[in-house]
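Lab notebook page, bench 4
Experiment: in silico fold of construct C2
Operator: M.H.
Input chain length: 820 residues
Purpose: comparison with the prior construct
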Amino acid sequence: MTIRQRITLLVVLMCAAICGIGGYAFLQSRQGETQVRLVTEGVVPSALASADLVSRLKDVQLATIVLVSAPDKLMMEQGKEKLVSSQKQLREAIEQQVGQAAGSRQKGLMEQVEESLDNYFFAIEETIRFRESGKNELAQASLFGNVVQYQGELEQIVDTLRIEKNRDKDEAITALNDNLATTTTTLSVVTLLAAMVLSAVGMLLYRRITGPISRMQAMMSEIASNQDFTRRVPVQTMDEIGRSIVAFNGMIEKIEESSAQVRQKTADIQAMLENMPQGILTVVEGVRVHPEYSAYLEIILETDDIIGRNLMDLLFSGTNLGPDALDQIDAAVRASIGEDVMNFEFNQHLLVGEIEKTMADGRIKILDLSWSPITDASDTTVRLMLCVRDVTELRKLAAEAGEQKRRLEIIGEVLAVSQEKFHEFIAGSMKFVTENEVIIREHPELHAEAVAQLFRNMHTIKGNARTYGLNHLTNLVHLAEQTYDELRKPRPKLAWDQSMVLQELFKVRDMVELYADINEFSLGRKGPGLHAGAGRYLMVDQEHVLESLHRLENVNTANLHELLSAHETVRRNLRLLGTETLAETLGNVLDSLPSLARELEKEAPAVHIVDNGYRVRTEAGSVLKNVFMHLIRNAMDHGLEVAEVRRLQGKPPAGTIEIKAEVSGGMLRLELGDDGRGLALSRIRRIAVEKGLVHQNAVLSDEETAHLIFKPGFSTAAQVTEVSGRGVGMDAVQDFVRREHGSIDIRFCDDRVGADYRQFRTIVMLPANMAVSGEPAATVEGGARQHAIATAAGAQLGNQSGNEQHAGKPQANPAQKEAV
């Protein structure tokens, strides 16, 4: 019999005597039934659904972590589908709670839930975008920064909502219990008033209704207070009370399942942190490490003593950072935690991104650091999250790749130079390096002339390296040149340190030897090659040999005139062995003019060479290259004007440089001139006075003024560049010429005495045995001129096997040449 039937029987028995009281009792019973339904069908399911929100929220978090940590695209797609499904279920559960919200507080909480949910989903979408674009580090940082932050906010709001729902549930149960108690009291009064005959029925009703309800109330209160969701309320009868108990037990079972799921998912998240191959920690007040960190951090730092330690001692001890940098990091961390997030942004540049840490066994690890703020709802930085990655092997591989790239670049540079010229360059460079080493070792203290000679030699190596396009060597030599340049100043900022200067020189020597090793061992180009000028083999025109043999075989020995003519022909052909035209000797210097012109933002000049039939002995080539490398560069930088200025002066945009060669007075006379503005005599005088080379009131002739440019360190350049401005050009030229027992002079070619600018020619005199008279001047000059103009115009000239490949030079058929 149901509770309703029993109450109806009681009402029938008592209706005659106490109709009013019985009616009241009936109404109370109906109200109790309504409250039971409210608890079992309304309040209890709503509270259960609110508890289930935490499980839904954990589903989303777990799906997000799986997606970010997915090792491949397939796992990412599966994770993405799981995330979309979890987000949908979470939003549906929240929408259901919105409809069940009772009271302004619950509705306000639901509004916060919806707003926080939007922020949460937006943070997840941003994290996924980072992951899909390959920015794994940013995805990890966003996951453990923004996503975790909004996850925590949402969990707090949902937890508050669950508490509110439970409070409503408890209030409804209390109201139900109160109503049932009132009903019991009313029935007791009715029973007493009705008569003793109904006592038996009343006792029966008490045992069947009030007893189970009281027991249910007591057990519900005990379960609610102890939060022991493993207990169940026993069901004795399947009436309304029994069904209420069954519904309550079902609610408790689902709460237990949800709690177990939450615990499991929390354990899964913790397991991911334990197995993630990345060191993650958070820094709290006092620059201390929070107890929660990833297990991989212990592997990276090779210690398990992490919790609560000072970050500076744990991570930055034994690193390559200086005291000032360490103080800045410590101050930046302290200034960020507990303050507005803007403080972190202002100090973020002080937090280093990479360190080298020396481990206990002496190994050095390279650690990559990524800093992120963890903020609360008010944008206050509560903690700093630090992601640590061991990139030692990665940096090692990058360094090896960089070294391989450098070697390939050097190989390309070497291949662009002919074997003979490269061998000549290496030999000359090593000669200058050796000479510099001797000078340095002979001078334990600073010596002005010694430094000037060091600078001249190093500047020459750099100029030749630039001429041949050996960029890696050029850059290294430039550093040594800068040191010498500083040491030769009147008040140098550097002190003369013999050991330091030697070490810098050895770096240049090692680089020269690296180029030589690559040329010899990697490219197999050992020595000067077959076309090495006056080496063991010489390439000569077969036509000349056949002509000589023909003259000797057919000469009339009885005719003195024919004998002398044959002798002269053979002598001339033999004298040409081991020689080359002046244009061929200066080929690489001229080839570099287009690139030099681009550096100076000028037009490439046309170069005219008039050799008057004289050819240069190959052994004299290095001297001429060193001399004219400086002279032509000076003409380009100081003499020739930029195109705009030349147009205003009625000149063609591209300038002209002329080189003449002849033998006079037992000397080889080489003359160089250009159609530029001329020698800046007034500027030379002013700079000489500023440098203390001449007295302010001294009266100098134009010739005396011109010869000041040969002073060590003298330059008229407005600023120091890669091309000029260090005052070494003419000083070095004079040194090279004097070493070969020659001389250099300046000759004016106008009558503008005392003018600011005067046209001039540079005259270089060298021993006559450096040149050999060959073919008639007109023929040789024409061919050489064509070669030089083509070079200055930027023609791509080959340097494959020897100098005979230059464009513009008449090429002989290979069948018409033979080795001698």
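Observations: Confidence is low (pLDDT under 50) at residues 532-537, 776-820. Residues 3-245 form one domain.
Next step: discuss at group meeting.
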